[in-house]
Write a structure and sequence with these properties.
heterodimer, A: about 270 residues, eleven-stranded mixed β-sheet, B: mainly alpha, Cytochrome Bc1 Complex, Chain D, domain 2, 3 domains, two-stranded antiparallel ribbon, two-stranded antiparallel sheet, 13 helices, globular, Cytochrome c peroxidase (chain B), oxidoreductase (chain B), periplasm (chain B)
């Protein structure tokens, strides 16, 4: 009895070892993740759209960007696929439509029920050699990179940037009434600081993202800019026209941790 | 790299074609085909041997991730002295960091940037950067490689955008060749740009002052009686903060400066911690006599004023560092003679080799 159990166990171990030792045997496919930025029930339109936040303040966004990183997919059988670290950083920019769809390649074939990720850039990557921070993490790249999403004087990435105009904001020296929310802070390098990294899990409900070699599911996540102003605390543009390196950034981050919801799924099949 | 691949490919295809045509054209030909083609120019760099001064601690900088070469250092030097690093092409790193004052800017209390804009703090002298854990008065940057981005992008310093700057360098007549010499290809990346500046800044080692020669028992290392007395006093009264061979323990402290005219909150601006309010980095004191003015806002023009502050000017503020309280009172008791002796000692920290080394200059 015990011997047969042991043998079964050993056999199982051998099969499992074989399985992990030969990743070529695992069939893979691609999954797309699309971020659809909205303002409540309306599509988000930079510079032309005017929206009203929970405090009743009207505003027109002029920039809306955020980092999505450390992506994990969870399958119906509980197995997780963790996107390899070096390929797990994305910068969603409202003014760069191509940035709003993330393509995850080499995803093991399976039925996935949820995805989780960080809004922001984790502390390890934030303090890594600059040579390991290319692409969207390059503070000196083009308009798709972290250029403008990086604090040079207090090394770190801006996780979420929302800028706009609002009659509720004070008039600045140029005669414009602007507000600027730049939220970052990964917990500090040598001195502990606040940590605004937020983990978001998007459950696909009754839908399944079925990844197959010839089948690419596209999961759409809806990001509601209005949620930045509501949630655990109401954020007022009049009271807080500038939120950057301050304790109050935590309030904004706690709100935007809830700005994303599952919207739907499409599947493209190729033969 | 890609270009060489292409050239290699073309050459080998050509040779193969030549060989094939030779075979088919002259079956049984007796002449062996000797490949002849343009000899590729080898990319060859010369390692730069960085040496830690014998009396210094181990460096903090991770040299393994940025192997220094003579060519990389030279590229960094050219960048350091190039006005193109500022938005309107008027200011280089060397504009505010002048070698004669150990890479400080002696004629401005607060940093002086493009379009005559004035910053909020006194610029720091540059030396022995390999040994520092953090940079700037508030320690906002902890990696030397990332330091240049701060002044380059600061609107009141160089006012540039790194992306635009690198794009300009790619179009410039001289930089692609310099990058190729240093790195083997003319690709100008953020990493190469920053690491070549680091390489140059890492060569800024100041360890040849009379004090150093004294410590290392080398020729020319004699200290005069007042200087020796000053050293003893310094050890007793100053070395708690200005510790070790860098003359700083690299902590952030409040030294009781009056805040009547300047409410700069210092390190708390980057950490947001209340306990860091009004704290600034303890600056290293090498070449201190050459790099006035002093303090984070450059309020003191002379070392005499600095010593006087510590002797009798320290303000009773809640944030005052405990090391600056003596018997419950703010300040460090120092007689006029003692102050003079300490200054005499500080002047032995001037490294004339460093401030005149042609390799560190604009040429």
């Amino acid at each position: 009895m015990y011997r047969s159990l042991l043998l079964t166990g050993l056999f199982g171990l051998a099969v499992w070892a074989c399985d992990t030792a030969d990743p070529d045997l695992v069939q893979t496919g691609t999954l797309h993740l699309t971020f659809d930025n909205v303002a409540g029930a309306q599509d988000l339109q930079l510079t032309t759209g005017t929206y009203r936040n929970a405090t009743g303040e009207s505003f027109t966004p002029t920039a809306f960007n955020y980092f999505v990183s450390n992506i994990k997919l969870t399958a119906t059988d509980g197995r997780q696929y963790i996107v390899p670290q070096d390929s797990s950083y994305f910068l969603i920019r409202e003014n760069v439509p191509t940035s709003q769809t993330i393509s995850l390649a080499n995803v093991p074939v399976g039925d996935y029920k949820s995805v989780s990720f960080l809004i922001g850039v984790d502390s390890l990557r934030s303090t890594m050699d600059i040579g390991r921070r290319t692409g969207v993490l390059d503070p000196a790249g083009d308009h798709t990179s972290a250029n403008g999403m990086y604090w040079s004087w207090n090394s770190g990435y801006i996780f979420m940037k929302l800028e706009g105009t609002s009659p509720s904001a004070p008039t600045d020296a140029t005669g414009n009434s602007t507000f600027r929310y730049h939220v970052g802070f990964f917990g500090g390098r040598d001195t502990r600081t606040i940590n605004n990294l937020k983990t978001v899990t998007i459950d696909f409900g009754s839908d399944l993202a079925s990844v197959k070699p010839a089948q690419v599911p596209t999961v759409t996540v809806q990001t509601d800019v209005l949620k930045i102003f509501e949630g655990p605390a109401a954020v007022s543009i009049a009271k807080n026209p500038e939120v950057m390196v301050s304790d109050y950034s935590q309030t904004v981050a706690n709100n935007y941790a809830r700005m994303m919801t599952y919207k739907g799924m499409t599947t493209a099949t190729s033969n | 790299m890609r270009r060489w691949n292409l050239i290699g490919l073309i050459v080998s295809v050509g040779l193969f074609g030549a060989a094939v045509s030779c075979q088919s054209g002259e079956p049984g030909g007796s002449e062996p085909v000797v490949p002849v083609g343009p000899k590729p120019v080898d990319y060859k760099t010369t390692p730069y041997i960085w040496q830690k001064p014998a009396n210094f601690p181990d460096p903090i900088y991770n040299f393994a991730r940025n192997p220094m070469t003579v060519e990389g250092v030279e590229l960094g030097r050219v960048l350091f002295y190039d006005d193109a690093l500022s938005a309107n092409g008027t200011i280089s790193c060397g504009f505010c960091h002048q070698q004669g004052s150990a890479f400080a800017h002696t004629d401005h209390a607060l940093s002086h940037g493009i379009n005559d804009k004035i910053g909020t703090r006194n610029n720091l002298s540059l030396q022995n950067l390999a040994f520092y854990k953090s940079f700037f008065w508030d320690g906002g940057v902890s990696d030397l490689d990332l330091v240049p981005i701060a002044p380059i992008e600061n609107p009141v310093e160089m006012g540039h955008n790194m992306g635009v700057l690198l794009a300009n360098l790619r179009k410039s007549p001289k930089y692609p060749a310099l990058f190729k010499t240093a790195y083997g290809s003319d690709s100008i990346t953020t990493e190469r740009f920053l690491k070549s500046l680091s390489q140059f800044m890492l060569t800024m080692v100041s360890a040849n002052s009379r004090y150093d020669k004294f410590v290392r028992k080398e020729a020319g290392g004699e200290l005069l009686p007042d200087e020796l007395a000053g050293q003893t006093l310094f050890q007793q009264k100053c070395a708690t903060c200005h510790a070790g061979e860098l003359f700083t323990d690299q902590t952030f402290r409040n030294n009781g400066l009056s805040r009547a005219l300047n409410q700069d909150k210092g390190r708390s601006l980057v950490t947001l911690r209340p306990e860091d309010k009004y704290r600034f980095k303890v600056p290293g004191l090498r070449n201190v006599d050459r790099s006035p003015p002093y303090m984070h806002d450059g309020r003191f023009l002379t070392l005499e004023q600095v010593l006087k502050h510590y002797a009798s000017g320290v303000q009773e503020v809640p944030e005052l560092d405990p090391a600056l309280r003596t018997d419950g009172k703010p300040g460090i008791p120092l007689t006029g003679t003692e102050q003079k002796q300490i200054i005499a000692f500080l002047q032995t920290l001037t490294d004339f080799d460093y401030i005149s080394d042609r390799r560190l200059g604009p040429n």
